[in-house]
Specification:
The complex is a heterotrimer of chains A (479), B (115) and C (256). By secondary structure, chain B is α+β, with helices and mostly antiparallel strands. Chain B has 2 helices and 6 strands. Chain B has one domain: 3-Layer(aba) Sandwich (Trna Endonuclease, Chain: A, domain 1). The chains are: A alpha/beta (479), B alpha+beta (115), C alpha/beta (256).
Chain lengths: 479, 115, 256
């Protein structure tokens, strides 16, 4: 029995799952059967394939056509199997990975899912593809790839390959706004430290002091994305932004929209991979999101189980949360008076100092009337710290101070013995937790790097500690 | 209802193949059988389909096959061996699906030019 | 209560000569994990049945004096004594003076407090560890409080009370007595008000902000040296930065 075999694939989280498509024919009334856990979206490709074949003057062979998708235990979904089926009917076997959606007139298109499959497959070692026309910016990410790009089904028969889609020029600089229009030198410094060492930030302040505005500008001062970071983002979300993503989330998001659904759609945290995730009005978020965020921050990925499969979404984002100090917003205001009851303020602050906020490295109080001095060469300094920290720790498996695992902080962040003793005594006296201590050390390492200091000094430690003492200060304001 | 010319062509073709035509257009409460023929001890129930523009076989779906099977059962009273054949005709010729089962599979397919 | 204790003579170094002056020759029994010389001391005394105002002031005074580096001496009774010990423990160290042997405790409600004092400071008494409490001993204890303290603050005391006895002892030893003014219609503050009438210095305010105290610090290192703890210094910086009092530039503190 003749069996035609072609290859395609699907993504499971950020993982690539190769799918073998086998086509065979049997005697009987004409029928087109697909087996192997095909979902509605794959089922529809029958009709597209039928008419696309007609566009090149062919038809589905007489009799019973049986198509099997292997491995049959994984649910197949997406419209990107069309081109593989057409290749099977028109040309027979192929060694290349085939993805692409086909229109009724035979033109081949790239879907989001097909981009994800190509990127994920490239990441896991596949180099030869048959695919729709891809943009130049995508091809640039995969220099070793051998792409046979088809614009129309007839090219499968003629063997001509199409050229890449040209990028629209001039997008590189747009959207990269630096900190120039931010007022206040303290807040600029906080943004710089956070971006330099990948430290999560919680910005607190009275309404209208420009918390969210700073949050948006954070991506602008980070170095642009590397190819492998872009490829990861493409493999998990199918999007390829020109610069680091800055995802603005709202407090009424659902957990599925925020973390991604197990069935295969990535959530906001994944779209913000290697970029900034902005959570405005942090304490207002649903409790299940705040709780779920804990593990995401620890693992820098979303872990989900779907049936027997474990699925991982990359989610290595820089969290920038903003919050008012109390329900009415005017606690700590220089002139206005907070009208909330002490219990409601305490409850609000309690939500801010829970286990999630505990994982945020820097807390900062944004003031309306801060003195505004220019911080010079922000991008350059941030970039230098990135390179310094990368060269220091890349062999350990991470590249930012904010990523140093807790159990290795004491080993990897070196502090002079006298300073260390002072720190140990103070931490013990104040009764701080180990995690708190690790956060102080990580943060002071980044501050020292920004200052160009080799050793961590008392001033670096004090600055790091002061970024963790805003909530106690707010507590003391409550009558 | 007038009989389509293709049904007569098929009947005469079957007769030329040493089949005995027992009945044509037998009407049952569950439907109609175009041709009932026999060869040896084997009864053959034939469904003839004609489509000008596309493959007539595609119009034979599960529902139609079920009806034919029910008619065959009523005709034989559940005794004796029988099979169902489908002739899917077009302007250029005809596919002869021999021994079609309910799931659409068949024993063999022949291409005939009856006209 | 079976942990060890020390027997000290009155001329021991930790008393800095305070008991020698009184020409005594009785041994003292001491228990605690941090027995250090008493350089600067203040006695805070008052009634056991104090108003909430008195309790609050006792707490704040204990905290303030401890943060200034004083060791707070008091009698481990409930009420004013208890609160001044608690306030002192938050910022520094304190000494409890007992009217019975070290194996006993009276009153029961301050037992948890005594445990924490034994961890951070120490308790002291005249009596052998097997000696239970007796009424007369508490007068002697008040004498010891007065002797150990550089000066005495009476927070709230009625006309007939142990706190006034302590204040009298202190006056006889030539030590200064301060008193916290109280409500004129409240019996429990009549004694402390009378002390003011008789010439004791009234305590008119509790200095609240540590800012003034540290204003001379020009660099972070100065501040850490003055505060003594990195975390507390960080707390102060966070507070001052948030209220716009200072700008931190590297290690230099700019006061606004």
């Amino acid at each position: 029995m003749d069996v035609v075999k072609v290859w395609s694939g699907l993504t499971f989280g950020d993982r690539f799952v190769p799918v073998e498509i086998q086509i065979t024919y049997g005697a009987g009334l004409p029928a087109f059967h697909m087996v192997g856990m095909v979902s509605e979206s794959v089922e529809e490709s029958k009709e597209r394939v039928r008419y696309a074949l007609k566009s090149v003057g062919k038809s589905i062979p007489q009799g019973r056509v049986m198509v099997a998708f292997l491995p049959s235990e994984v649910t197949k979904s997406g419209a990107h199997f069309d081109l593989a089926l057409l290749h099977g009917f028109l040309k027979g076997n192929s060694e290349r990975l085939i993805v692409g959606e086909v229109a009724l007139d035979g033109t081949v298109r790239a879907t989001v899912q097909s981009l994800r499959v190509i990127a994920a497959a490239y990441n896991s070692g596949t180099k030869k593809f048959i695919c729709p026309r891809l943009p130049e910016s995508v091809l640039k990410l995969m220099p070793d790839g051998d792409f046979f790009m088809v614009e129309h089904v007839s090219q499968l028969l003629s063997g001509e390959t199409s050229t890449a889609v040209e990028d629209e020029g001039g997008t590189e600089c747009q959207g990269r706004i630096g900190l120039n229009d931010v007022k206040g030198s303290g807040i600029k410094r906080v943004a710089m430290i956070a971006a330099a060492g990948w430290h999560h930030v919680l910005l607190m302040g009275n309404p209208g002091v420009g918390k969210s505005m700073v949050a948006e500008r954070m991506v602008g001062i980070m170095p642009s994305m590397s190819n492998s970071e872009k490829l990861d983002l493409l493999a998990s979300t199918g999007t390829l932004p020109d610069h680091r993503p800055a995802r603005f989330t709202s407090w009424n998001s659902t957990p599925a929209g925020f973390f991604g659904s197990a069935k295969g759609t990535p959530g906001e945290v994944t779209f913000a991979h290697r970029g900034v995730l902005i959570m405005d009005e942090f304490p207002q978020y649903r409790k299940d999101i705040l709780e779920g965020l804990r593990t995401v921050l620890d693992c820098r990925a979303v872990l989900a189980s779907y049936g027997s499969q474990r699925l991982t979404w990359p989610a290595d984002f820089l969290l920038v949360a903003t919050s008012n100090p109390c329900p009415c917003g005017y606690l700590g205001h220089p002139k206005k008076v907070c009208k909330d009851s002490p219990t409601s303020v305490m409850r609000y602050l309690g939500r801010l100092s829970g286990p999630v906020a505990d994982r945020i490295d820097m807390h900062y109080w944004v003031k309306a009337d801060e003195p505004n001095e220019d911080v010079k060469a922000v991008e350059e300094r941030v970039c230098n710290v990135w390179e310094l920290q990368k060269s220091r720790w890349e062999s350990e498996g991470f590249i930012h101070a904010g990523h140093i695992p807790g159990e290795r902080v004491d080993e990897l962040v070196e502090v002079g013995s006298s300073v260390r003793k002072l720190l140990d005594d103070s931490v013990e006296k104040a009764g701080l937790s180990r995690r708190e201590r690790h956060k102080i050390l990580r943060l002071s390492r980044t501050i020292a790097d920004l200052e160009g200091a080799h050793d961590i000094g008392i001033n670096h430690l004090i600055e790091a500690i002061s970024y963790r003492q805003v909530i106690p200060w707010l507590r003391s304001l409550v009558p | 209802m007038s009989r389509h010319f293709s049904e007569d062509k098929v009947a005469s073709f079957l007769a030329s193949q040493k089949y005995r035509i027992l009945d044509q257009n037998v009407i049952f409460p569950t439907g109609e059988i175009d041709i009932v023929a026999s060869k040896g001890r084997m009864l053959v129930f034939v469904e003839v389909r004609y489509r000008k523009n596309f493959d007539a076989a595609e119009t034979v779906d599960l529902k139609k096959l079920e009806r034919i099977m029910q008619c065959a059962y009523l005709y034989t009273g559940g005794e004796g061996s029988y099979r169902v054949d489908v002739f899917a005709c077009g302007p250029k010729g005809c596919h002869w699906y021999k021994g079609v089962r309910l799931d659409g599979c068949c024993e063999s397919v022949e291409w005939l030019n009856l006209w | 209560m079976t942990s060890s204790f020390y027997m000290l003579s009155p001329d021991d170094d930790i008393f800095c000569g305070r008991l020698e002056q009184q020409a005594l020759n009785r041994p003292l029994y001491v228990r605690g994990s941090s027995i250090k010389p008493l350089e600067k001391t203040v006695g805070i005394v008052g009634t056991r049945h104090a108003s909430s105002y008195g309790l609050k002031v006792a707490y704040e005074l204990g905290k303030y004096y401890a943060s200034e580096g004083y060791v707070v001496i008091s009698g481990l009774a409930y009420g004013i004594d208890q609160k001044s010990h608690e306030g002192a423990l938050e910022k520094g160290t304190t000494v409890g003076v007992l009217g019975h042997g070290l194996d006993f405790h009276y009153p029961k409600s301050t037992l948890p407090l005594r445990k924490s004092i034994e961890e951070k400071g120490f308790v002291i008494t005249w009596y052998n560890h097997e000696q239970g409490p007796r009424k007369a001993f508490f007068r002697e204890r008040n004498w010891l409080i007065a002797a150990l303290s550089d000066f005495i603050v009476v927070v709230e005391a009625p006309m007939k009370s142990g706190a006034l006895i302590t204040a009298n002892f202190a006056l006889q030893m030539g030590k200064e007595v301060k008193a916290v003014p109280g409500d004129i219609d409240r019996d429990s503050s009549a004694g402390s008000n009378m002390l003011i009438f008789e010439g004791a210095e009234p305590v008119l305010a509790i200095p609240k902000d540590a800012e003034e105290q540290y204003k001379s610090c020009k660099t972070v290192q100065d501040l850490v040296a003055a505060v003594g703890s990195l975390v507390e210094a960080g707390q102060l910086i966070a507070k001052w930065q948030s209220t716009g009092r200072v700008i931190l530039e590297g290690e230099i503190i700019h006061w606004v």
